[in-house]
Protein 1
Amino acid sequence: MEVSSLIVRFFNESLIFFTKKSRPKASELCYTYSDKERMIHVKKQLLPAVALSFILLGCSSKNTPAETTTSSKATTVETTSTTTSTTTATETTVQSTEASSEATSATEATTQAQAASGMADLSLGYDIIVNKKHALPSTYAPGEDPTAGQQVRALIQRMQELGYPISDTYSGYRSYEYQTELYNDYVSREGKAAADTYSARPGYSEHQTGLAFDILDTHGNLLDGPEYSDAIHWLHTHAHEYGFIVRFQPGKEAITGYQAEAWHLRYVGDKATDIYNSGLSLEEYFGVAGGGYE
């Protein structure tokens, strides 16, 4: 209930109270008040109450606006703070979304550019595919991959322990320049068409990645021929245990672009066993285009 209503109620009840008290019984007084005297008497007794009422009303009027203003200001501050926080959160979300979209677009653009240019994706690590559709830059010269080199030497040692005639040496990393000399020599001897079935053109050789290895017999020749059938069988069924696959398999010539090579291993790391069990070529396993040159 408002203060003004309380004051009015207090004034009315006081008027009734004092009016009743201003009517003394005849037995209590020696005379009876006239109506005029009675009203004067009542007014004198009510005057302090009226004064007190106005004082209380004045205090109420001063306090109420201040409280309302403070409350209004507090509400405004809270609303402004909430609006600012919401705006900041929205801006942050928008910026994050834009940054994510830009990163995705950049990745897609890079992939599309590599596919269009026919270049191998050097960022793929052990998943990289180099074939007649995906070349390496002439300046790419990583040398022999340390892990792959360690694993091929462990494989060779194991074959030697089992009695297979395998050489300690192998044909591993080849530079762009060396592959150029090798390929041109084959072309000069057998012609370009024949050379393309078993030798890669400069920039298209897996040996340039440092992940490819040719296994040799104790005479320094490529591990091939019926006399090495047992050694080849062991190599093909156990190479995956060391992180390798037989890169050019029989029956996959149209996909890999080269004739079968029993001696050619390619290091792929942890995926080797899965690829071996699938029976797929590297192109088929990763869904990458293979075959001949463009």
Protein 2
Amino acid sequence: MSDGKSIEVEGKIVAVLPGTMFKVELVNSNGHTVLAHISGKLRKNFIKIAAGDTVKMEMSPYDLEKARITYRMKEPSANPAFGGPRAGFRRR
């Protein structure tokens, strides 16, 4: 939101739905699930999100059932020296 009243939360992707929508379970709650969509920057930069990924989201204080995914968290087990599973990938 532009006025800075959004709530930042972290969650884990539970299900991938059609139309770039996701069911996300919040990390610090007791099983609360929200419906989330991808923000414009993630869509523009072709950031892929799959089930099981940890994401950072913004929620409106007026509707706590919907959210906007703003950041996909890095996997802690990825070895930075190896480069990850897409090390050889180069966009032309």
Protein 3
Amino acid sequence: MGNREHIFEEYFMTLLILIGAVAGLVMGTVGVGGGAIIIFCLATVAKFPQKMAQGTTLFIVAAPISLLAAMHHYKNGFVDIKAGLIVMASFLVFSLVGAYIGVELPNHILKPFLGVMLILMGLKLIVY
């Protein structure tokens, strides 16, 4: 590998580490946004194609990444296990449905849909 490729690879690895760090800090702090931040950063900062950003984000989120943060919240009495299991089961089923839909939708529809969803979530937090 030439020096130029080595420098780019180090830069890209550093970029990916920063994306994970920011997403982890936000998710661990406020309990949401890890996946949203990761997909946004992979698609815009790391220049992943939209579907690659989505698939990679799903891979990251599917792993027990937030387990330590969840355990800390649980130890402090801030986890409703019953509600969590119900949402988890629903999330499991409908994430598969969403995966089928997302793979079939063209990028020119998929990308704006993600943007609208993020805007609506942000507006809900700001307004209410």
Protein 4
Amino acid sequence: MLSASWAIDPNRCCYDFFIEKPQEALLADSNQSGCLTVGEGVALNGTFVVPDIASVSGSIEGDITARELIVSSTGVIKGKVTADIIDLRGEIHDTLTARKSLFIRSTGKALGSVQYAEIEVEKGGDLQGTPQKIDGDAGSEQSFG
């Protein structure tokens, strides 16, 4: 429910009317447009196209395409993953394509077919499967919507 309040400005000959939003609406306004957040303990199945940033702390079974993908240490994705930038602290199983940069952090695991333009693997990071370097300029022209 919205609530309203009046404010009188002594320097003006009119009243200002303010609408106060409930806390839930303020939280919704703070969300970034075009982003997906999968919280820890949340499991999703399907195909996801995310125009901006996808942050995964839960699990996804299916395909995901995003501009930037962040997989936390509790995140697991089983399916085809495509993004310009991938920051991997959890696990990705199947096919992974980083059109610009792939960062495999010390807790990260990339298992399967791994394509990347640039790669950085921290000590402890796990890359198992078929790595393949790709031309980053060729794949970066794809649009998301």
